[in-house]
User: What shape does this take?
Amino acid sequence: MKLSRIIRLYVQANNLSIEQLSIHTNIPLYKLLPSCTAEFTATELLDFCNYCSISPEVLFQITSLLNY
Assistant: This one.
């Protein structure tokens, strides 16, 4: 899923603490590292969006616009 890459780019672009993000969302820390290639589960995606107060549709739109 290319969406996982968009999430990692979002984390970097917004200078989010991956440690805090991992604690609050229960997403394994390694999945948030820029070099990771593991895919996010649907639950992790929704938890991420909830934590960041963004709609999952926004991430899907970014993915489609960038042709990832």
Summary: The mean pLDDT is 92.
